[in-house]
Specification:
Elements (H helix, E strand, L loop, with lengths): L1 H12 L5 H16 L11 H18 L7 H9 L1
Helix pairs in contact: 1-3, 2-3
């Protein structure tokens, strides 16, 4: 639920945020995607990663290429 709130809030207020705030949210979402989400039995939370990917794709639509020139390198960094 918190990721849905983040998604809704971010995209409702995105244009009101300064560039530094937009970059901070973008970097925070990237850091969360890097986080190994597992429950106590070791299974991953695909729904969490899917929601984070959806948020990140929305950010990319608004920022790439002019305001996020390192987008492709950042995405490759998620798989390495």
């Amino acid at each position: 639920m918190s990721l849905k709130l983040l998604e809704d809030w971010t995209f409702r207020w995105w244009n009101e945020l300064p560039d530094a705030g937009q970059n901070q949210i973008r970097d925070g979402v990237i850091q969360l995607i890097h986080h190994p989400f597992h429950n106590e039995r070791g299974s991953s939370f695909r729904a969490v990663r899917s929601k984070l990917a959806k948020i990140l794709s929305g950010i990319a639509q608004r920022r790439f290429p002019a305001l996020w020139p390192s987008f492709l390198q950042d995405m490759v960094g998620l798989w390495v």
